[in-house]
Structure formats: structure tokens, C-alpha cells
Amino acid sequence: MNKGIAGLHLVRFGTAADQGYFLDDFAATYDQIVVNANMVAHMPAAMATFLGVRAKKPFFIDPQTVAFQHEVDHLLSTLKKSAGEIKRSWRRIIERYGDPIAQALSAESPRPILPEDFKDDKKCRAFCSRVVDFQCDELSDEFKTGEDAAYVQFLAEEADIRDIVSPSLVVAPYFYLNAQFFDQWLQVNLRCLDFTRSVLQKQGHQKPLAAQLVISQEVLLSEHLRKKLVDAYRGSAARPDVFLLWIDSFTEQALSLGELQNYVALVEDLASGGRSVVNLHGGFFSVAIARFGALKGKLVGVCHGLEYGESKQVVPISGGVPVSKYYVPAIHARLSSRVATRVIRGLGGFKNVAAFRRQICDCQACREVIATDPENDFQEFTETKISTFWRSGKRVSMEFPTAKTADLCTRHYMWRKHREYTENTPLNDLCKSLQGGFNLLKTSIGLELVGHCEIWPKALQPIA
Description:
Strand order of the largest sheet: 3-2-1-8-7-6-5-4
Largest sheet: 8 strands, parallel
Number of helices: 20
Strand content: 5-15%
Number of strands: 12
Oligomer: single chain
Shape: globular
């Protein structure tokens, strides 16, 4: 294990419904699980059982301290009985983390935390200690003293599990860095990192320490701020073992060559001195350059969710509608059903079953569905249903994917991601394939959706 990172392929656990995609046939398709603190707080016994007994994979917990930095609406319940109150899972985290989070997020008048909330060294150190304890003890306590401890222990004994569930690394508290208040929050992050290292040393923990860097694209594109960021962490006495990188809304398919080159430069700078970097929200470009390009041995992990999560906004936006999209392997992008249909037709995938499997996909999910008439069979990946409900006093009808569609798209996505992380394709062949997809599809779907296939090869190939 590379300083707490078990391999290149990390998958973020989203909801209880996700569990099946981490087990059984999928268990061997990824290396490590990332789980959010609010999921641990929401169902600690279930998560202890899942991680320690069922999945039995290396994992670490994202403490999500950045969530308390923003406007508090996303922390509040929208249920009729508890509307306006802080959600139970977040309330439990606030209680465990304590001040200054608890003081700012009081039930009476919750507010976002500010840099000055961390000015007291003693309080800041105690806060970091509690964040460490949550990561290291919250799940293992379920085996000892949790409400369902007897049941969890029974399941562990049945599975012949003797080791208490424990994360592979510890993440220091972290906060979002944008250009506007860069210096103030950078100092808070560095102090939290230093205090977390001292807490680990005092407690005798041997776990690697991770610094999570959450930055705006403006910071990425500013050579001055990028250098200040790297120099600050390079000079830190805490010396993190691994960097967990999250760039706000960093959708690889939408980036310019310059933006990709700045990303590569940042990872190279962070990795100098033998430290490792993980992209917490990355796609195929990150996977390819980590395996075959300039970031080999430096970018040691790329994480995504189930059929989503290759990019993520830092400031949460609620109210999104779940949308299933078909992941087109030829261009490494999730596309809506209409666009995916045009792409598959443009690639000749609807000619017959053999053509679909050769030109589009032959994963287990696609073999199950595409059996006789590809164009007709493909509709199983695109079926929707109309649901009607009340919103803000009005009756609203919306289109949602069926449960079967969502399952098929997710299984297809997971099989294809496994292949991307493991297939050995020479870099030159990979670049030719991307360029070929661009040439075939630019007329039918436009530069916006396929332009990355021309830009990525230029960023993947070494600069002459």
C-alpha cells in the first residue's frame, strides 16, 4: 500500500443503495473505498458491517470539514417534520467535532465557520484531535459499544473477521481555498495539518497523514497562487504523506490544453520529494496520464463515484434530479440517451450485435442487453418513467430513469471503469484512438461533446 493508498482505482461510497456495486462480481474491480463522514454518522453500524465484514477493502473517511464553510442550507432538513433543522447525520458530526464547529452551527442560529474561529491554538488542537478520533474510532466503536454491537460482532465472527475495522489513513481537517480568501484559509489548513500530525504522534498512531487540498480553478490557473500553495505545504513541518486533491467543478472533458497542463504541473509539484497525490474527483484523462504519461508514479489514485463523481462542485447545490447516462467508452464520456444513440450510430454500433460489441462495448451488462437488435435493445439503457409529486405547493411531473435503467447504466459504467484502470494500451495507440473518435464524431455531435478527444492527446504526450 502506497502510504495509505491501496491502488490507482478508488471509488466513493454514496448511499446505502450503492452497496451491491462494491461486492460480489465488482469486488475485484477496484482497490479502495472512500466514504464520507456524514454516511458514517448516518448509519454507523451498517457502515461498520459493510466496510469491515462485507467489502473487506482498504478505505478511508473524508471528514468533510469543508461542508461547514459554506452557507448552511445544504445542512438543513427539508422533511416536513424537521424542516429547517440541521440533519441528524450532520448534527452527529457537529457533536463529535465540537468547537469551533459546534459553536458556529448552533441549533438556534447556525452560521458558516470563519478563519478567525480557529485562532485559539488550544481549541484548534482539540478540534483536530476530535476529527482524528471520529475517523479512527467511530466505526470500530460499533464493534464494541454501539447500539448494534452484538449484531455487528456476530456478523464479523460469521465472516471470520478478527481485526477491528480501521481506515488506512487519517485526513486532517481542511477548508476550501479560492483566490478571494486564499491566505486566511491556507493558514487554517496548515495549522490543522500541524496539529493533526502532533495528535497522531501523541496517540502513537502509525497511520499515514493526508492533506486534502480543495481549490478553485482560479487558484489552479494562477501560477502565483499555485506556487504559494505548493511552497506552503512543502515547508510544513507536518510533512503530509499523501495529498488528496479536489479541484472545484474540474470536468476533464471541458478543459482546455492549458488547464490540463496546469493540473499536471500542480500534481508534479506536489509529488516532488516523494509524496503521493490522489485526484478525489477524476476521469479517464487522470487515469491515462497516471498509468502511461507524465504522472506515472506521482498520481497514485483517481477516485470517482458510481456513474458520477468524476467532477464535483465544492459549494453544494441541492435539488438535483437523478439522471442515468450511458458511458460511451470510445470517447470516455457519459452522454444522455439521445446523444449516446447518435454517437453509437455514428460509430457503426447499431449495424449488428457483433458491431456493437466491437465498436461500442462488450461488458457483462451490454452483453446481457444487446442480444438481437442493437438499436432496439439499447432502449433498455434509456427507459424513463413519469413521477408526479408536490413541490412548493404545486403539483410537478418529472421524468426519472427506471430502476432497471439506473442499474444497467451503473453496472456498465463500473465494468468500463475497471477496464480503463487495467487495460494495457500503448500511449500512442490510445492517443490515435481518441483522435479517431474526434474525427468520426465532431460533425454529428459537435466540438463541445467530443473536443476533448483532440485535446487530451496533446496533454498526454510529453512536451517536445
